[in-house]
Amino acid sequence: MDGERVLSIDAFRGTAVAAMLIAGNPGNAHAVYSNLQPAVWHGWTPADLLFPFFLVCAGVVIPFSLGRRRRAGIAESALIGQILKRSAGLFLLGLFLNFFPAFDCSAVRIPGILQRIALCYSAGALLGLKTKPSARVVLSAVLPAVYAALIFLVPVPGHGAGILEPDGNLPGYLDNLIFGRHLLKPGFDSEGLLSTLPAVAVLLIGTLLGDWLKTPRTMVRKTLGVFSAGLPLTAAGLLLHPVLPINRPLWTPAFAFLGAGLALIVFGLYYYLIEALQWKRWSWPFRVLGANSITVFAGSVLLEKILRLITVSSGGVRLDAVVFIHERILGPLAAPVPGRLIYAVLAALLWIGLTAPLYRHRLSIRI
After folding, report:
1. Half-sphere CA count of 117, side-chain side, radius 13 A
2. Per-residue confidence at 334, pLDDT binned at 50, 70, 90?
3. What's the pLDDT tens digit per position in 125-174?
4. What is the pTM of this model?
């Protein structure tokens, strides 16, 4: 297994990408399925789980990647350099996507999804290189605990400690102190600095999944082991909710455990179907997206921004291309809600078509 490509990893990652494309391309931001929108604050919807799923995917490949490079004779110092170089590339790509198209240095958002993936990847890969799985098990519990302790023990000036509301919480206060205007919205950013701690824990859980898949156990035994880890993590997240609510913007420990646990459960199902039972055909579209997930994510964000720059005159008003496609082309084809769903699904199909040739030729665009 160590030297083989695990198709279920690509399929699982691709499913998260497809869900992201559908959730991120509703056509009309004011009228979408509720499950395609994240929870406003406390609570969760399926859309909230996409980022933890991505982080588990980013973590699970690390043991395989490090194993291949070690077998190739790459020195540890060179491995560290490669990890830091890739992390820097992801971070800079995320900054570029935030800069484009305004290129306004005075108010550009510094945190972001790719920036958080970069920070989590660098921490997870370095820990995967230097520590044993047992140490990462401890860290995956300690990091969310430390994060929660900081929230409840460190007072925010003018508000006090233990604030879990949009205003006055410690992660938002620190982000505002460090980044100022360069946040997603004034005073708070869901991909901020302090809340990266539980996100790193989720990625570390992904590395532990990768370690488990590399063992010589049978596929059925591995599947059971994945479920055995996913179920208690999910339960922990749900049980913590009354005390420390499940909250994606704050990345509370309850949210981190719930997201990681459900990711393991879903992946366990994929692993059993694709690897153990060899039911592969259904997963092809997802494997196509998963093999070039960063390319698809960055490309979809860039394309959306470009389409928003293009305006079309229709009915005496100027509409950006996204609204025009949704309201003037797809809208008449079906009732309003199905029309919006058509727009979202077409966005996913577009990227499957664009990346399918890369997948057929076993090409992967990497940062």
Report:
1. 26
2. low
3. 999 999 999 999 999 999 999 999 999 999 999 999 999 999 999 999 99
4. 0.93
Biggest distance spanned by C-alpha atoms of the chain: 67
Do 197 and 123 form a contact (C-beta atoms < 8 A)? no
**Arithmetic mean of pLDDT, 203-230:** 97
Q: Beta 317-320 vs 311-314: how paired, if at all? A: antiparallel
Cα angle 237, 239, 242; round to 5: 105
- H and E: helices and strands count for the chain: 13, 2
Name the residue with tokens 């008449």.
Answer: 332
| pLDDT of 1 | 52
Which one-letter amino acid corresponds to residue 287? R
- CB under 8 Å to 8, separation ≥6 — which residues? 267, 270, 271, 273, 274, 275, 283
Cβ count near 204 (within 10 Å): 30
Q: Which of 359, 45, 55 is nearest to 198 (CA)?
A: 55
